[in-house]
Structure formats: C-alpha cells, structure tokens
Amino acid sequence: MTIQRIHHIQITVNCADEDAARQFYIDFLGLPEIDKPNSLKARGGFWCRVGDRDLHVGVEEGVDRHATKAHVAYQVDDLSDWRRKIEAAGLTVKDSIPIPGYDRFEFRDPFGNRVELIEALRG
C-alpha cells in the first residue's frame, strides 16, 4: 500500500476575496478554471487546473495567512520572466534557500497564501 501521487492542493482566501482570487489565479497567473462538482458549489471557492493536477481555492475566515509555511510550488521554465511579472504587480519577491538543481523564489499572493515558483537548472 503506497501513496501514488498528489491529487490536488487546496489553499484558502477570505470569503470576501473570492472574486479577487479568481482574477489573480485565473487572469493573472493564467490557470484555467475547471468545474467543481455540483455538490460542492454552494461552499464557495473555485478549482483550477495546473498541468495534470488541481488547485482548489476555498473560502474561510479567521486564518492568519501570513504566519504559515504552507504553500504551493509551481514549476516554471522562465523564472526570471515570472519574477518581473510578480514584482510589476507590486508583490514582494523573497529569494528562497538554495537547493541543488533548482532556482526558486517565493511571494505571498494578495490573500496571504505563500507561493513558490521553481525552475530546474539546465546543466
């Protein structure tokens, strides 16, 4: 018996920020939205596709979003372009601790969720 793969990642935003989160994740980051099951639509939030996995953006209140290390890491092939885009949007980029074979940085989305962008080094 083994765990086979990650099925999805769920992050959360405040209930009042759901529309702004759609704009950030779907319009700004360019993640395609996918339909949620009808049984879950009344709970709010939305789902996006990231490669062959899902990102579930739920809504909840009362979470200290700026105090957690929890995050999603998106692998990209153009990290420097993403850095410029993130900084141009007024978000603060923080260099991550180096790890062998990768370049990476992190930032907080407009709702406090930690996000990492990571690129495999060619070599």
Explain what this protein looks like in three dimensions.
The chain is of the alpha/beta class. The chain has two domains: 7-62, 2,3-Dihydroxybiphenyl 1,2-Dioxygenase, domain 1 (Roll); 64-123, 2,3-Dihydroxybiphenyl 1,2-Dioxygenase, domain 1 (Roll). Helix content is 20%, strand content 33%. The chain has three helices and eight strands; from the N terminus they run βαβαβββαβββ. The strands form two sheets. A four-stranded mixed beta sheet has the order 1-4-3-2, covered by helices on one side. It is globular, with a radius of gyration of 15 Å. The model has no long low-confidence stretch (mean pLDDT 92).
Write the layout of secondary structure elements.
Layout: E1 8-13, H1 18-28, E2 33-34, H2 38-41, E3 46-50, E4 53-59, E5 71-75, H3 79-88, E6 94-95, E7 102-108, E8 114-120
Parallel strand pairs: 1-4, 5-8
Antiparallel strand pairs: 2-3, 3-4, 6-7, 7-8
Query: Total number of helical segments?
Result: 3
Question: What is the number of independent domains?
Answer: 2
What is the CATH topology descriptor of the largest domain?
A: 2,3-Dihydroxybiphenyl 1,2-Dioxygenase, domain 1
Strand order of the largest sheet: 1-4-3-2
Provide the structure class.
alpha/beta
Kindly state the number of beta strands.
Answer: 8
General shape: globular
Oligomer: single chain
The CATH class assignment of the largest domain is Alpha Beta
